Each structure stands twice: as C-alpha cells, then as structure tokens.
Amino acid sequence: MDQLLEKCTELLEDINFTAVRKWKESHSSGKAVAYFPVYAPTELIHAAGMLPVGLSGAGDRLDIQHADARFGSFICSIVKTTMEMGMTGHLQPFDAFLFSSICDSARNLCFVMKRNFPETYIDFIHLPQNPSSPASSHFLAEEYRRILGGLENLCGHKIEDGQIRDSISLYNRNRSLIREICLLRAREPHLIRAWESYLLVKAGNLLPVEEHIALLEDALTKLRARQSKKRDSIRVVVEGSFCEQPPLALLRLVEEAGCYVVADDFAIGQSWFESDVPTEGDPILALAESYNERSVYSSVRHDFRKPRWLALPEKVKATNADAVLFLIAKFCEPAYFDYVPFKQELERAGIPHLQVEFEEKLFTFDRIRMEVETFVESLVFD
Amino acid sequence: MAEKTEYRSSVHQSQKDLMLAWYEKLDRAANTGDPPTVSMMISGNCVELLEGFGAVPLYPEVNALQLAIRHQSLEPILAAEELGYAADNCAYVKADIGCMLKGITPTGGKLPIPTLILCNFVGCNTYLKWFEHTAKLTGAPLYVIDIPFMRTDEPMKADVEYVVRQLKETVQKLEQLIGRKFDYDRFRQAVECSSRTEDLWSQIKHLSRSRPSPFDAYFDAITLMGPLYVYRAKPEGVAFFEAALAEMKAKRDAGQGVYEKERFRLVMEGPPPYPYFRTFRDMFAKWQACAVASTYSTVGGLWEFGFRHDPDRPFESVALHMIEQNVTNRNYLQRYEQIRRYVDEWGADGIIIHFVKSCRLFSAGQGDMRDYFTKQLGIPTLYIESDLEDPRYFSEAQTRTRIDAFFESLEHSKATAAAQHWT
Lengths: 382, 423
Ligand code: SF4
Ligand code: SF4
Description:
The complex is a heterodimer of chains A (about 375) and B (about 425).
Chain A (H helix, E strand, L loop, with lengths): L1 H12 L4 H9 L5 E4 L6 H6 L3 E4 L22 H11 L8 E5 L3 H13 L4 E5 L10 H20 L5 H27 L6 H9 L6 H16 L9 E6 L8 H9 L2 E5 L19 H11 L14 H11 L4 E7 L3 H16 L4 E6 L7 H15 L2
Parallel strand pairs in A: 1-2, 1-3, 3-4, 5-6, 5-7, 7-8
Chain B lengths: L9 H23 L4 E3 L7 H5 L4 E3 L1 H10 L4 H10 L7 H12 L13 E6 L3 H14 L3 E5 L10 H22 L5 H24 L11 H13 L3 H19 L10 E6 L7 H9 L3 E6 L19 H10 L8 H14 L4 E7 L3 H4 L2 H11 L4 E6 L9 H27 L1
One iron/sulfur cluster binds next to helix 4, helix 5 and helix 13 of chain A.
C-alpha cells in the first residue's frame, strides 16, 4: 500500500508531467489533452486515442513570477499557477486544453491562455445550467459534437461511436471503483485515511484510465485486508474543495486533529456521475443526458430541481456524519457563495460546521490546526 | 484648474422622471400585486418578452448601483457579510441581499417580490448564485435561461435553437404564473420599439467620434443606461432616445464638447466605482479627458456595430441579442477586439482599465489585457483598482496620483509626437 501511495504522490506532485511525457514517447503520435476542473467528458478524449489529463494547479511547487502580471489581485491560486505553468513551459507536453463554464475566473483564463498560446488548440465547453429544460441535453450533445470535431482535427482521424461507447464502459468501471472507495471510507473510515483516498482517486487525473482501474482494484484489495485500529474521531463531510485542491498536509492535519473524513468533494469530476452512463444508443447523447440527469450536486452546476443546499444535509445523514467541514480555496467565488445557504440549511438541521480557508501555498497550518482541534473538542465534549 | 462637468439637460431630467415612474410602478406592484414583475439581470436582458405580458422588469443591479451612488451601500453589504458572505464575494449581490434583509430600497418605496425570478445567465456565473439566493430568500419561483457563452466566432445554430426553446418555456411559465396568455403582437411591437431605440442609441454612440465629443461615453452613457434597460421596448423609450439624440446632435453641430477644450480622448474598460462616482469623474474632468467609448455601456447590449432586434424574427433576435450582442457574454478576446476598434475608429489616445474587485467577469485577466494593449499594440493604458459597490476599496489619493501621472505622461508623449511631426 505504501508503495502505491508513494507512486501516486510522485505522480501528483510532478509539475513537469514526466508521466505524460513518457506516455507520449511510448505512443507514436500520441497526444495529451489537459482539462481544467471540475468536470470534462474524458471519454471523448480517450476515444480519440489521446491521454486526458486533469489539471490541478501547481500548489507550492512553483513560484508565481509571471502570472501575477496577467491575473492580478483577488483571483484564486489555481488560475494563477496554471497560467504560470503555461508561461514557464511546464504545460508543454499538452497538445490541447479544455475549459468549461464553472466560474468567471476560469472562463477568462481559457481565453487569456488562447492569446498567450496561439499555436495550441484551446476550447471552452459550455456545460449547461438549465437541466430542467428539455432542450438542454440536445444542446449539450451538439456542444460535445463540436468538441469532438476539434479533437478529430487534432488526432487526424474520425472518432467512431463504438470507440466512444468503449471509453464510456471503461470510465463507468473507473467511476464505480471510486464509488467503492468512497463507500468503504464512509463505512470503515479507520481503514483508509482521507489523504490516502485523495491520492488514489486523484492519480486518475494523470494515469491512463486502464492503469487507474488496475491501481484502484489493487488498492481496494489491499485496503480491505488492512488491519487498522479504530480511532477516536468525529465523522465529517468535507465540502467546498471541488476545484482548487487543499494541500495534502492540510488533509493530514484535519485527520490528526481528530476527524474521520467520511465524504468529500476533492477531484469530484472523477466520480461525477451517480450511476453508469448508458452504453447503448447514441453515446454522445448518453454523455450529455447523463450530465443533466446523473451528475452529483455541485457548486458549479445549477440544478434547481433539487437545490444543492438540500443535498448536503442528505449527504451528512447518508454518511452518518457528525459535522461538515468547509474547506474553501481563497477567492473561490462559487464556494464562497454556496457557503451561505449550505450553512443556513445545516443550522436548520442542527448539524455543526466549521469553515476553513486555504491557499495552494500555505506555509503554516498552526492556526487551522487549532481551529479544527477546538471544533472537534466542542463536539466531543458537547 | 479643476473642471467639473456633468451632462445636465432636459434629457437628464426626463431620465430621472422615467426612472422614478418605474420605481413607482414597482411600489404599486408591491402593494397591490399588479402589474406582474420579473426580476432579471441587465446583461443581454430580454425585456421585450415581458412586454408580451405587460410585466415590469426588476433589475437588482440597478438598485444596487443606485444605492452605491447615494453612498448607502455599506450598511447592506455589512448585513450580508454578517450572514456569512465573504469579503471577496461580489458586492452587488451582498448589497442586494442586505437590502432585502433590512428592507432598504433605493427610493424608500417598496420593492415587490417578483412574480418570477428570471435568471438570464448571460456570461456571469455569479448571476446564478445571486438569483438562487434571492429565490431561497423570497420563495419566488426561479427559472434560468442558460445562454451559451461565446466560445466560437459566431453563435452556433444549436445555441440559438436552445435559447429560443428556453424563451418559449419562459413564456409558458409566465402564462401559468400570471394567469394570462402571452400577447404575441405586443411582443412583436416591443421588438420593433427596441430596434428603433437601439438605432437611436447607436447613433448617439457614434456622435462621440466627433472632436470634441458632445458627451462622455462612460459617465454620461451611464445616465442613459437606466432608460435603455427599462424602457427600450416601449414607445416612451423611443421618445426619450429621440430627444437625447436631437439634443446631442445639436451640441455636436455647434461644436460643443464636454469640456471647453477636449484634451484627451479615452476608452474606458470596466464598471465605474459607483460609491465615488463624482470624485472619480472629477479626476478625469481635471484633465479635460473625455471617454469616447466604453465597454461597460455595452453590458445590456452592443448596438454600435450594427445589431438590431428584428420584428420579423422576434424570438431569434432576442436570442441573438442575449448570446452575442452584449459584452458580458462575449469572450475576453472579443472584448480586446471591441476595445481595439474603439481606439481606432473613435480616435482615442489611451485606455483606462478599471479593475473592480467584485467582478471577476470583468476583471479576471485584465493584467493580460493591459499587456496586449501596451506591449503588443503600443497604446497607452492605465490600470487602476477599486470596486463598483463597496466603498472600502477606493483609495482616493492613490487613484488620483496614478491618473495624474498617466495624463502627464500622455501629454508629454503627445507633445513629443507633435514636435516630431513638425521637424
Ligand atoms: S477555485 Fe473556484 S474560483 Fe478558482 S477556478 Fe476553481 S471554481 Fe473558479
Ligand atoms: S460579478 Fe460582475 S457581472 Fe457578475 S453580478 Fe457581480 S458585478 Fe455583475
């Protein structure tokens, strides 16, 4: 297990994307397509024979020297470090970039990157915000077909429906394994730490899906055989880290301070659907419909058929959690906004919560540690 | 010489009257439930559709900016922060929510709970959150019109079809809520009115190509924006803009500018600092610097490049307006192009980029914008930071110093260029 985790850590910390470079070397004319969080239809990229890679900023591994001149104050770290990575050649292994309609900063980043890297194929996917319209899935299917056209241009051949269906099957398998890990963690949180599942799941941002499936299967076997002692911890749901990711050390800290993280939204894009995407019929329409009908609730997707602030307390109940921990990236506007109605509904349901703000570059966690410890104590001794 | 100027005229007075009449209607709606009201965002709004129901638009952004201009925005902002909103959330939203909590309105009259909260999701993701929250707070029904962002040079056929479908769903929804059939003829007439208003507005905007410009296309344009959003689709709107055009044409023909001598011509990017609107304006007046074009005045619609609503294709043209013909839903590089055209075609000496902390839609990436204009195109550009609603982010001394320095250097380079011209 330790080896597995070490491999994942190495993969995720490497801002030179060595693994991607190697993949490209071993696949003649292989192309890599990077996508900005939160969700992207990776199936389409995979079906084209290309490697989809989920971006997640550079954390504290890169100094911002150029990007500040492009994106000034009040902008989250992931936008800046992504720009910095681009300006310092770190993103050079990528042949294309996809962005989507998650927030204003990320959207503008897409077009600023277009100007700064005019040779690269950069596209923006308008993921719909009105799932209750019967026209929405059809629109998204057309949007996916447009993106598919862009990808076909890049790989130089047509992408057949059969290939997309095969990719959907693989990603269904991948998502169901991630769900299994989540379930295991919710049921027996002493068997797997949050930072461990974070690493295992997030490795899928960089690995070919076939390899990630193997890795997760291996991990699940090992985890189930684990002999870990139960800890004296409260059970928390983490909310608010759907895009920019908290530093690993922060996750460790949360657990050391006495929390079992029984559910979270880290790398939520990788387990975006609550059930399998159908593999029958028009695969593009299946992906589009799934976005409207099978997505998890999210701060970057409007769906008033069931407001997300009702979904959070349900998640707390379903995972038998004691509290919610909001881990919010500094300047992440969607997370800031949702905090208010989330908080109101939690309070209505009598569920305690704590808000913690983080940046990719956090040098000292002392204050946060104290806050979490105090919070845990207040619950334990209540 | 500190010159202070403001466009004061009969147009100014009738603008005030129109806006007051609008607030009175809203007050009546709050008291009696009639007329029906629909809240919407300014960006690419579809006010024409409302006319088909005789419904009145309610624009929370207009309320928020009115409040800020009257120096009343801080109290509601603080109330919203107490509720849990972050220091870095858009302050328009905070001011609006804070007002609801405290029962504050810009005129002191009442504001109704809208018959429908219609979120025209035109570019800004904050709109979604804002209207989700007001729906939660008021219990009013919410419908989102999802407008595909301009990610291609032209809107796709699927984009237009998708929006038309949603407009028709909105009509159905309103029929249920209001209990009246949609009056298609009235809708067509509204679209016809809009196309006439837009034509007049566009002519006004082209007047600022003259030297001197008869009006300031940032500060004065903002005065005209209220009627443009509320009355565009009504005969009153047409009449108002006819009068405005006539008045400004007369000024232009008489060679009258905003200042006795127009020294600098500018393109303004970004919303203004409403809490310090006068102070800010005076900083430019001091240098007799006139805005000849601005991106902010195209939030509600971009008409100076030729687009008009089309009564023969009412739904399609409303859809196109929402998708393509407003600065908010156009991508960042399209905004660069818009500014570049203003500089070239309106003959500007420089660009002012006003970064507002609240608004990532406008501001995220403005550093890159500055880089493009200064380094790639060699156009003098000033970058200043404050906020459009929150008075705590305006540093008067610093802003003044930077503006003064900019004009000093602009004057110097103009003088050098002139000298070179003569040698
Ligand atoms: S962290 Fe938040 S604000 Fe930043 S890009 Fe992601 S969603 Fe947008
Ligand atoms: S972020 Fe900008 S465009 Fe959006 S609501 Fe706020 S001020 Fe308006």
